[in-house]
Design brief:
The protein is built from no helices and eight strands. The chain is mainly beta. It has one domain. Strands 1-2-6-5 form a four-stranded antiparallel beta sheet, with no helix packed on it. The model has no long low-confidence stretch (mean pLDDT about 95).
């Protein structure tokens, strides 16, 4: 996860990938896109993202990811 100026990018660690079909949410910003990475835009680098990852037919989430 990286954040700069309120722009957040979340990537999964291989072999896991972003689950674009899941309800990702950031409590301090809005979702911009979900593809190979989840991207959000907010005012500041704070709060928590509810993340979802997938590896084949295995999925995990929500995973609380603190934004700093």
């Amino acid at each position: 996860m990286s954040c700069r100026g309120g722009e957040v990018t979340v990537t999964a660690v291989q072999p896991w990938g972003v689950n674009a079909n899941a309800p990702w949410k950031w409590d301090k910003g809005a979702k911009v896109s979900l593809d190979t990475a989840a991207k959000f835009k907010g005012d500041k680098c704070e709060g928590t993202i509810k993340a979802y990852v997938v590896n084949g037919n295995q999925s995990k989430g929500p995973i609380a990811v603190p934004v700093r």
